[in-house]
Amino acid sequence: MEQPMQPLSPEKILAVWEGGRQQHELDRALTLLAAGSPGVSRHELADLTIGARDARLLQLRTLVLGPSATGFAECPECGERVEFPIDTAALAQPKELAATAREIELDGTRIRFRLPTSHDLAEVVAAPDEAQGLRRLIDRCVIESSLPDELPNETIKALSRATLEADPQAEIIISFSCPGCGQRWEMLFDIAQFFWDEIAAQARRLLREIDALAHAYGWSEREILSLPTQRRQSYLELVAA
Ligand SMILES: [Zn+2]
Questions:
Q1: Residue 2 class from Cβ within 10 Å (0-12 exposed, 13-18 middle, 19+ buried)?
Q2: 230 CA to middle of ligand 1, Å?
Q3: What is the pLDDT of residue 4?
Q4: Whole-number Å distance between alpha carbons of 199 and 44
Q5: How far is the CA of 84 from the centre of ligand 1 (A)?
Q6: From the CA of 145, how far away is ligand 1's center (Å)?
Q7: Per-residue model confidence as pLDDT tens digits over 17-26
Q8: Contact 111, 159 (CB under 8 A)
Q9: Long-range CB contacts for residues 77-80, cutoff 8 Å, separation at least 24
Q10: 3-state secondary structure of 223
Q11: Among 112, 108, 104, 101, residue whose Cα is nearest residue 144
Q12: DSSP 9
């Protein structure tokens, strides 16, 4: 997928937020990407491996809000709120992985598998628990092998490890050390959830700005959104003064 991504205009941010509010997180991630990927269908985006999806989400976040972000985590030991810097440009791996087949050898048996995509995850979200979800996911991604229909647990584990090794962008892990008590821990950083929360905050802020300017000047929503950001901010300062 070579098409360059585009930043999101204020109108698009509002449309993405409205479209994604009621969606499952998997669909939200695609709604975000689709808004920033003109000319690419939602179906194509859902065919990206999860790592490739997340690389594009990191790129889009960088385009829309710049590379620097601040995350928060809670110390599992003492409950202190820990702030941590995130550089979305640095976290994005430059090379997009194709969802092509991989192969591992396990106890002398060669197993071909492919990397999971949003389509695959969407098919397994209804699984009753995490272990069964993982089993269904791996089952979907194994391509032709001489294995029994019911894969042994060991095989599921080995395949899930191999999948993560082949698509490392799908799992961003951040290490922490608590300034309060010194506890160290690791946490998964979910760019889809993080970026969605930021877009939701942006959308709410835009609505407040439209509300304030419409009250003050009687302008329409369209007129207010068509103002360059800097100009909008200048009027907001006047209104607040
Ligand atoms: Zn602590």
A1: exposed
A2: 41
A3: 83
A4: 23
A5: 14
A6: 47
A7: 999 999 999 9
A8: yes
A9: 77/178, 77/181, 77/183, 78/178, 78/180, 78/181, 78/183, 80/178, 80/179, 80/180, 80/181
A10: helix
A11: 112
A12: P
What is the pTM for the complete model shown?
A: 0.91
Residue that the structure tokens 């200048």 belong to: 234
Between the CA of 27 and the centroid of ligand 1 the distance, in Å, is 35
pLDDT tens across 88-144, in order?
Answer: 999 998 776 666 788 998 888 889 999 999 999 999 999 999 999 999 999 999 997
CA of 78 to the centre of ligand 1 (A): 4
Which pair of tokens denotes residue 137?
A: 């996911």
Q: Could you give the CA distance from residue 52 to residue 181 in angstroms, rounded to a whole number?
A: 37
Residue that the structure tokens 């300062």 belong to: 237
61/53 Cα distance (integer angstroms): 12
* pLDDT, tens only, 166-211: 998 999 999 999 999 999 999 999 999 999 999 999 999 999 999 9
Residues 6 or more apart whose Cβ sits within 8 Å of residue 68: 85, 86, 87, 88
Q: Which whole-number Å values give the CA distances from 166 to 169, 170, 190, in the listed order? A: 9, 9, 18
Angle in degrees, CA 220, 222, 225, rounded to 5:
110
For residue 176, the CA-to-ligand 1 centroid distance in Å is 10
Going by pLDDT thresholds of 50, 70 and 90, the confidence category of residue 55 is very high
How many other CB atoms are found less than 10 A from the CB of residue 71?
Answer: 13
| CA of residue 190 to ligand 1 center, whole Å | 22
Q: Give strand pairing partners of 171.
A: none
